[in-house]
Amino acid sequence: MANQDIPNQEILLDMYKKSALAKINDENARRVIMNGSLPMIYYSPRGQEIIPAAISVNLNNSDSICTIYRGMHDMVCKGIPLEKLWGEYAGKSTGTCKGKGGPMHITHPETGCMLTTGIVGSSLPIANGLALSYQIKNEKKVCVAYFGDAASNIGAFHEALNMASIWKLPVVFVCQNNRYGEHTKFEKATSVTRISDRAAAYGMPGIHVDGNDPVAMYNAAKTAIDRARNGEGPTLIEAMTFRFYGHVFGDQDGYMDKEEKAKAMAEDPLPKFRAWLIEQGYASEQVLMELEVAFDKQVKEAIASALSAPWPELDELNIDVLAAAQH
Amino acid sequence: MANQDIPNQEILLDMYKKSALAKINDENARRVIMNGSLPMIYYSPRGQEIIPAAISVNLNNSDSICTIYRGMHDMVCKGIPLEKLWGEYAGKSTGTCKGKGGPMHITHPETGCMLTTGIVGSSLPIANGLALSYQIKNEKKVCVAYFGDAASNIGAFHEALNMASIWKLPVVFVCQNNRYGEHTKFEKATSVTRISDRAAAYGMPGIHVDGNDPVAMYNAAKTAIDRARNGEGPTLIEAMTFRFYGHVFGDQDGYMDKEEKAKAMAEDPLPKFRAWLIEQGYASEQVLMELEVAFDKQVKEAIASALSAPWPELDELNIDVLAAAQH
Amino acid sequence: MMESLNNQITTVEAINSALADAMTIEDGIILLGEDVADPEEGGVAGVTRGLSTRFGDSRVRSTPISEQAIVGAGIGAAMAGMRPVVEIMMMNFATVAMDMIVNHAAKLRFMSGGQTQVPLTIRMATGAGLSTAGQHADYLEAWFAHTAGIKVVTYSSPAEAYGLLQSCIFDNDPCIFIENFIAYAQKGTAPEKNSRIPLGKANIVRAGKHVTVVSYGPQVGIALAVAEKLSAEGVELEVVDLRTISPWDKATVLESVKRTGRLVINHEAVKAFGVGAEIAAVVQQELWGDLLAPVRRVGAPSCPVPYSRPLELAFMTSEADLENEIRLALK
Amino acid sequence: MMESLNNQITTVEAINSALADAMTIEDGIILLGEDVADPEEGGVAGVTRGLSTRFGDSRVRSTPISEQAIVGAGIGAAMAGMRPVVEIMMMNFATVAMDMIVNHAAKLRFMSGGQTQVPLTIRMATGAGLSTAGQHADYLEAWFAHTAGIKVVTYSSPAEAYGLLQSCIFDNDPCIFIENFIAYAQKGTAPEKNSRIPLGKANIVRAGKHVTVVSYGPQVGIALAVAEKLSAEGVELEVVDLRTISPWDKATVLESVKRTGRLVINHEAVKAFGVGAEIAAVVQQELWGDLLAPVRRVGAPSCPVPYSRPLELAFMTSEADLENEIRLALK
Ligand SMILES: Cc1ncc(C[n+]2csc(CCOP(=O)(O)OP(=O)(O)O)c2C)c(N)n1
Ligand SMILES: Cc1ncc(C[n+]2csc(CCOP(=O)(O)OP(=O)(O)O)c2C)c(N)n1
Ligand SMILES: [Mg+2]
Ligand SMILES: [Mg+2]
């Protein structure tokens, strides 16, 4: 753990709960895909859970996030209800989006999950808009835009950071640098060693942090979110991490450095965090195990309920395309 | 003049010729618009001529440029024939583009004027492509992408600089920072004090230079162009300058700082350069005056020839849309 | 703004008033776009002049040249409950923001199962005739009309601009509001304050019995001029102003063509794969047996907008082009 | 690649071979796109696998995620005399590169008065059926067809993919080459090496006399299946594979419909303002008097592509949809 201010026990446990729930949810997702009971195109965030856990413990329910196809962990940490999440994965009428959006477009405004986009880079400009609204209405709310390392090379990233900085928007840009964009290594596509250094191009603070270190990540998140909330403007956080299961779950990983991957998996941040919590006396093995068992049960119940839920009616094709007549 | 290596007399005179021709061409353009003999929407580059003059004396005929609507000076310095330029301004069949492109889309491949775009930022990605071709064919040629300060906030800028850096393309990005984008002040739209600092976000050298100083600008151009030609990759040059006649010629300038403008016009780089050349003994008043008179004559002849040239035939609407049948 | 002589106002004044009057009623309306605030003179055509002074710098913001960020900011603010009006200076610049418009603004209501909505108005100007050539004058409404989840609206007079823009702003869907640059100075009768013209409803601007002409934008004026001319010969055109290009008012168009038996569609956009094609395709199917002649279309030729004045004039659809197609329809 | 059993190859193999064979003949052909090189496994579907190893890292380059820069690089290299083939992974991502495609690639020949040209091929995949939902499955060919200066091409079998892609690559205009993701694994007879199928020419894949069905892409397979079925009832469909969507082969379509008197157009894209509208509009005008029934169209409903499997199936045009329209046309 980083040699920094350590958050209190409550926060640490909250972070553990969030990240463990995301991990267990991921394990179950991979299980139901593998066993064929719920096949879907799935972008596993396994290995990256500490990042949104640390962000989310610094957010209120009324703060919002905009995330990407690989954003299950971001939303679970933000508090999205599992039944609705799984309902959407299964394409059922009980899903967050009545089955119409699917895994790449999960939305749940009640918990602040405002957008999941399948277009690289597009979470950022829209997050700006949410933040702009908070600013104009003087609401003291914050929006977090999640995105990947490779997304930092697309135009929308550039435009969004410039605008956010000019207008001091209450937004935090969180780049989850998992070292790959699809099959392409970070270094091959990105012309700067640290994405956080790009912040200087926008007169904005940039924080480079080990996203797998709960304490360091907590402090980075707190600094940036406080800054945004206090009207001091946006921050770019580059959180270093790794994705354990390739780009899309089931791909052959042939493009990945085997050693790099083995090393990253050996340093799985979740068991590490867990061991540290016990070692430091923040929680007992017993308590954490009970939590995990309960989470697993919750997830499995959510899946069961999704699998048995009804499909949407076919006339949903004509609904929600345009608003129901108003004038 | 900057306290730097001073180019030799031949180069200095060449730079003066190029910039003076662009200045005289601009004066005539404003004259024919004002007197109604050739009305057109015109983006005057008056005040910015030193920049492309310094660039162009470092380029060969087979090197290329991609420029923008405010790019008359860039093309005149690159050697575009005046008759064809004016033919295009007049929309005549004798124009570079047979009158079909117009002032915002002047093209003349024989002198390396490959592209004029009316879309902010779009000169950069296309310049990369020309440079990519030179690199793959190992031709030791260089492409220069010209653009404005405000263009540094659009996505295409970001994507182009990143790609050029990753691939070490023989391209030079020349930002003519005239302190305004249309009616908007530089500071209001751009989140960084110096655009050249953005180069660091792409692992690329950035040069901040007084674009109105012939010696400093020459050295910046030479450094960047040599670098590109030697296969060392791209450079971002931010050349500080000013546009004397607003965004589009004829606009009311109400958005401009009167003092700032008066000061800039008082420091018109062209008379300054001229006085310095005489003072330092590089040229006599007599020689320069003769040059200028000759240029003015050339320009007026080009205009006269454009005005009397025939319009394109109406079936030009159907020509050059697609290639003539090939297979 | 609206107290002009004889109750006549320009289109610029109408649009400016529509924005001002809407902003007065509802705080959630904000304006974003290049040069839109007063230190920047309210845009190159002055359409938003005075509004930042009146409603404050927070609600009226000149932006960097970043169309993706502009539209994205509009989308996010709309999702948060505001009613942003963003300006994309010229329609061709929408090409750098199509992801935001098409993949996001248009789809978020559907993809979220109705949980979020994007009450965003995107204003954009265009039109040939100003010698701005290939990259500043395209009419791209067919692209947006082909995109589910977004409304496409344009006007044929200052009062129509006012009423339709008001409706777009207060509509709960994303609306593309198309302005014609050359007609900004066009004058017309001032609208009633806060009057709205319903979206999705066409307007029969001239009744007639021989040929229906469907049009929109400044082309409606061309249709009316041709109608005047042909009336002298005893040919009575019924001129339908579509107002909303998508979703278009099938009922009104079909009812009219059923009466007249003949249809000519007239737009400035390139004819091939343009909006007229959809209308022709629907009408020939729905009114099979009622049509007295094939549906005909007037639109630009398949080429970029040319610069040279004679070419530009030949490119633009004219009264003569429309008259010609009408005469063919009457044969 | 092409030595497969029974001379059968997949579409992926056909496209891969078309690229490889063209690159062997001409040095100026380069490939740019996300993950296209071999360290990145030649793309998520492996379409370009083996090519960087064979032709070198300089000619086959995996790019950053920067579609504007990718297409821009293709345009510039094409202007300099090369024949780049760039990949935009999915058609929906073209929305971030529309400026490059529409304002530049399509217009530079015209705007330069023929001094420059852009012999660029832009490959992009799409198609519903894989549960990728709203942002990965749109068919946007109507946008490109409405844009003068660009050709739009797609194929209905591996051999067609090979021959048409070869033609796009060696064509002197920018070509949009549309691939269907779900049909990548589809097998068919291998083409002859270096065979090219001319652009702008449709192909009558089945002769018939009662109804003409015009289609393109995988929908041609649907048309053939329906033709087979109806043939048993004595109804003989003439199936026309458009191959080039724009500029489309009017002569072949008109000649066919003149014979059959009936036309149904079938595409996966949203029906409203889709490619079918233009074909219907032209045919009803040109063949007025020859048509025995109105032109009918099959296309997707006006909504984003939905995720849920039953919705996705209902969204996608099916054999039943086509059969239904054909029966209506025969009434
Ligand atoms: C504009 C656009 N281009 C390409 C893609 C295809 N694509 C999906 S994910 C991805 C890689 C993104 O990598 P990164 O930003 O690092 O995020 P990660 O998947 O690693 O979390 C690509 C290229 C896309 N979705 N959108
Ligand atoms: C994508 C796009 N957005 C907006 C415009 C309208 N526009 C034309 S020039 C310009 C200002 C550009 O300023 P800058 O880059 O500083 O260049 P300058 O005109 O000062 O030389 C704008 C906003 C455009 N042409 N393209
Ligand atoms: Mg990544
Ligand atoms: Mg400028």
UniProtKB/TrEMBL annotation, chains A, B:
Cofactor: thiamine diphosphate
Protein's name according to its UniProt entry: Pyruvate dehydrogenase
GO biological process, one term: pyruvate decarboxylation to acetyl-CoA
Entry keyword Oxidoreductase: yes
One GO MF term: pyruvate dehydrogenase (acetyl-transferring) activity
Species: Zhongshania marina
Boundaries of every Dehydrogenase E1 component domain copy: 41-313
InterPro entries from the UniProt entry: DH_E1 (IPR001017), PDH_E1_Alpha_Subunit (IPR050642), THDP-binding (IPR029061)
Keywords, comma-separated and alphabetical: Oxidoreductase, Pyruvate, Thiamine pyrophosphate
SUPFAM superfamilies reported for this sequence: Thiamin diphosphate-binding fold (THDP-binding)
